[in-house]
Backbone:
């Protein structure tokens, strides 16, 4: 290889880099959110998480095993502490069932319970059931960038579509260029912060970068939060559909 | 001559007569006045609950009242319209509604409510909502995602006009239906519970949200005459039930729809009679006491009359005539003061808002206006007059039993 060709190669790669950079400068916000959503969720996953519910005067830790498949199906099972172990939640589409081993019953959550807290945490049943609302019910726009660990972070403002049945006035998302969600802030209609989800400790887990700590915090009460800490997460290509059935909800809980 | 004698006798001791008159007057006054207050409360309670979406008569699918879910809706409003057209008396108004329980939420709050889908123009003639919107505006037929909420709910939700409220409920397919509404108007109701419970949207939007096509949950009928006896309701509802097949429809009058209210009214009736009785016992003792005193004072007189050959029965008659005069005087004066005080109070009403929480529980109005019923006045007067005469038999008989010898000895 002679000198000339090396210079040429350098030049070409330089232009490539510029062109590539320019292309990445403003990605389509809709697809960015969608891709980030897909990345964080994976096609299918099995995870074990410690959920800490912190309040001013008490704290509770429970361990949750979760299976997810696509956007629609998920199954959560509490494995510890023994008192709550066996309590399960099955989500299929917009519908949810909860299973309580003590009464050996699976109950379909009525609309009236959808906005209540899930297992006493700062997540509501709706946060779980309507997780894909972010993609379908909002219009996203990029309003700024910053950097995080040397990577570019997109600040996205999400305004609900006029007819969309969402209670929020606005969401603000921070998505890193490698599709990792850094934070999601929920604002009311007066654009006052209600609660915020933040992610921390991005690590290599099962072959991809993934934040292992997720924290949901209400804006008014600084000493109240729910912290999710992933002990393990496995991303899969697919999982059996039978896993996400009412009978399995009972089986895993027993 | 009896009357003249009796009249003069009662004024022989004016002070005593005035004392007993005062007792009778206060008794009669309190019967009339308190009776009117209770009737006022009663009438207001009924009017309130009739206006709060009950109406005089309602038609439902026959299982709806046991299980008010969307599946128990009436699918053929055309038939209903025809039946209503032929069998309603003049001046009656009706409105069709959807009524379903739902969950309302915004970013910070959520609460169970009843979503009422209404036809704005028709509803205004049937229930309170047409006149109850205090800020913002009332619904229009062409509104798509507009909603009217109560002041109390608005405060609870920290919301303002123009804000969004998301309603969630179950639709015909048992799926969760949710829809975002914007608040356009705020209504006030007599009771806070009403303000918290009901939210109003247009009928067509509610039907769309619940996937109900053109089905409706209820028809509410407001009759022109607002008598509380329920006779007109009965005839109209019988007419309607004879037209509408009872395999599907159920026609009910407010007496059937609000059994609690009906029983409550009965309780009120009895309470009024108990009150009459209590007042009368107090008054009766006064009458007996005073008359007895008068008689013992006049023992010599009665002895003399007896000695002169007066029949005992005539003495009884004389004494009873005296109490009759007393009672009539007292009743007339009592009626006058009672009616005047009712009329005075009627202008301003009695403000119960200081007791709001307690009053609310019973669905009573915030401002109480007394209501005078002829039957109550007549009953009060008759009770006082007849029982008054009855108790004065005892002193009269006592007077008639005096012998001339006794009378001589006593003095």
Residues:
């Amino acid at each position: 290889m002679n000198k000339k060709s090396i210079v040429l190669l350098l030049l070409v790669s330089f232009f490539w880099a510029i062109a590539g950079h320019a292309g990445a400068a403003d990605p389509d916000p809709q697809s960015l959110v969608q891709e980030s959503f897909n990345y964080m969720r994976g096609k299918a996953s099995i995870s074990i998480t410690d959920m800490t519910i912190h309040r001013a005067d008490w704290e509770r830790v429970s361990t949750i095993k979760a299976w997810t498949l696509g956007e629609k199906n998920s199954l959560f099972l509490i494995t510890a502490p023994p008192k709550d172990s066996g309590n399960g939640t099955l989500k299929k589409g917009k519908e949810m069932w909860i299973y309580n081993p003590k009464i050996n019953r699976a109950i379909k959550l009525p609309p009236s319970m959808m906005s209540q807290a899930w297992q006493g945490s700062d997540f509501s049943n709706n946060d779980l059931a309507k997780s894909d609302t972010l993609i379908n019910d909002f219009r996203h726009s990029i309003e700024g960038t910053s950097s995080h660990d040397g990577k570019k972070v997109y600040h996205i403002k999400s305004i609900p579509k006029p007819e969309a049945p969402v209670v929020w006035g606005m969401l603000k998302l921070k998505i890193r260029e490698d599709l990792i969600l850094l934070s999601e802030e929920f604002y009311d209609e007066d654009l006052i912060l209600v609660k915020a989800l933040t992610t921390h400790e991005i690590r290599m887990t099962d072959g991809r970068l993934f934040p292992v700590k997720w924290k949901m915090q209400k804006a008014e009460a600084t000493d109240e939060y729910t912290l999710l800490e992933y002990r393990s997460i496995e991303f899969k290509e697919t999982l059996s559909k039978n896993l996400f059935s009412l009978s399995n909800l009972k089986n895993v809980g027993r | 001559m009896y009357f003249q004698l009796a009249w003069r006798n009662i004024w022989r001791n004016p002070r005593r007569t005035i004392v007993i008159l005062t007792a009778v007057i206060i008794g009669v006054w309190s019967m009339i006045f308190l009776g009117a207050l209770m009737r006022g409360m009663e009438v207001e309670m009924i009017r309130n609950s009739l206006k709060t979406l009950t109406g005089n008569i309602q038609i439902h699918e026959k299982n709806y009242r046991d299980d008010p879910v969307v599946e128990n809706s009436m699918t053929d409003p055309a038939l209903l319209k025809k039946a209503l057209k032929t069998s309603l008396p003049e001046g009656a108004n009706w409105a069709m509604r959807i009524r379903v329980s739902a969950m309302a939420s915004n970013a910070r709050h959520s609460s169970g409510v009843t979503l009422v889908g209404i036809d704005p123009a028709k509803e205004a003639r049937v229930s309170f909502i047409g006149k109850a919107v205090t800020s913002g505006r009332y619904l229009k037929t062409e509104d798509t995602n507009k909603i009217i909420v109560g002041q109390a709910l608005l405060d609870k939700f920290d919301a303002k006009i123009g804000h969004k409220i998301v309603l969630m409920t179950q639709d015909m397919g048992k799926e969760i239906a949710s829809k975002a509404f914007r608040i356009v108007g705020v209504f006030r109701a007599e009771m806070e519970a009403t303000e918290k419970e009901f939210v109003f949207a247009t009928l067509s939007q509610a039907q769309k949200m619940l996937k109900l096509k053109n089905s409706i949950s209820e028809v509410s009928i407001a009759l022109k005459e607002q008598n509380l006896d329920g006779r007109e309701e009965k005839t109209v509802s019988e007419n309607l039930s004879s037209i509408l097949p009872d395999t599907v429809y159920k026609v009910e009058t407010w007496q059937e729809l609000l059994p609690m209210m009906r029983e409550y009214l009965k309780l009120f009736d009895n309470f009024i009679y108990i009150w009459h009785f209590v007042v009368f016992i107090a008054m009766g003792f006064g009458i007996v006491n005073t008359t007895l005193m008068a008689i013992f004072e006049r023992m010599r007189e009665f002895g003399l009359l007896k000695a002169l050959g007066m029949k005992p029965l005539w003495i009884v008659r004389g004494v009873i005539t005296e109490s009759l005069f007393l009672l009539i005087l007292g009743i007339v004066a009592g009626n006058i003061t009672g009616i005047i005080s009712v009329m005075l109070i009627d202008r301003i009403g009695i403000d119960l808002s200081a007791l709001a929480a307690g009053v609310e529980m019973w669905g009573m109005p915030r401002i109480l206006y007394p209501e005078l019923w002829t039957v109550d006045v007549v009953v009060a007067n008759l009770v006082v007059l007849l029982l008054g005469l009855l108790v004065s038999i005892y002193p009269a008989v006592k007077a008639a039993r005096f012998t001339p010898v006794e009378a001589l000895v006593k003095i």
